[in-house]
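::Amino acid chain::
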Amino acid sequence: MIKVDNFVVKLRAYPNTEQREKIDRILHGLRVAYNVTAYEITKGNPMITKQDANNPETRWPDFKACMKKEWLNWLRESYNLSDIPATALSSSAYSVFKDMTKSWENFHPEIVGKQKKTKKGKPVFKLDGTPVWEKTEKPVKLPCGKWQPEYYSNKKPRESFTVQSFAHGFVFKDNSKSVYIPVTNLGMIKVRGWRYDLKYGDNQQDFLEYFSNKDLFPRGKALGVTLSKDNCGDYWIVVKLQTVWIPDKSKTEKKSIGIDVGIKDIAITSDGSKYENQHFKKKEKSHKRIINRKVSRRQGWSNATFRELHKSDKSLQPSKGYIKAKLKLSKLEKKIARKRQNYNNVVTSDIVTGADFIGIESLNVKGMMSNHKLADALSDAAMYDVLSRIKYKAERYGVPVVEIGKWEPSSQLCSNCGYKNVEVKSLSVRSWTCPKCGETHDRDVNAAKNILAMARKKK
């Protein structure tokens, strides 16, 4: 067994009709609370903003005040938010205002600002017609009047909230795949997908055996539980656990591995193993095209005529046929994503469990996706997802992972003698023979070997 300090279990939830309605009301209430609070901050409401010590005319957001009783009572009385659990509003770790704090701290003005080139050719961004800063990849913390928050809407709804649950209240029924989880304001919610192979605590005990221990948890163990609703209308619960033991699936023979990722094969290792790209998105392309045509023909946001009509008549709503077609499209995209996720999990587990050292390369994902000829194939391959899964699984198994630079010429170097062949830069070259030593290389396997050699030097 392998010890994992922080572990999450994602479960499919099956709330009853009353619980579904209540979850929807909570999500709507959180959307209202977030939008109203963000708007009041931009207007400089003295209840949730503070004055700048050096400039009395400038005010800054006070997110701690947003979680205090005075502001929460005003929200509840003004907008009838009595259904929302207190933790989702006032918790310093889980509340909706914690998300707002992150949004403000990670604000990138170039996304919403107006770009204008100066005489020097450097882009300068303006808000309200006033030059503020030059283009930067770093987030900028702005005073209330200049911050432009992203609001939730019908097109971009609030999808999740986090509350506390108590582990000793979990109910496991004999000979049943279902588990019942107690959730604040909602009661017991039925879920499926529990990991029965997990053990807990230093003594590797079963779930209830460990969390019902009154010597360790005299008042019960509080767990963070996140409820969410996806765009297919399905409900999910994520349970956050600590000190978890997972099964050790390590192979008996281990070796150092360099990994190159690509489009034809999603992972190529330095020992010559290749994991084929299943092209889940490409296989459903014709099916997706048919549904997209239905969506664009029907009266909804994907229809240009509807958008023009909506500008003059704000009461106009998407048709039932549009909503039905959008649901079909969402379910198809979810099916593709889950197939890819499952396959990537199998591939990365097979790689990590047989390695004692892993070398990988950094990826310039933004730069690669800017190539419109490759963007669709790159998104289907999900190379970044493969590398990120390798990283976290390697951390669990105690396997060191070393990243080489994103601009290293791993494909152009001969792994045998080190000769650099600049002609290999083109993606059309799939194999080549070294002019210096005569070694014939498979492009991807050679790159994986070079990644391993560079990673060892960097270690």
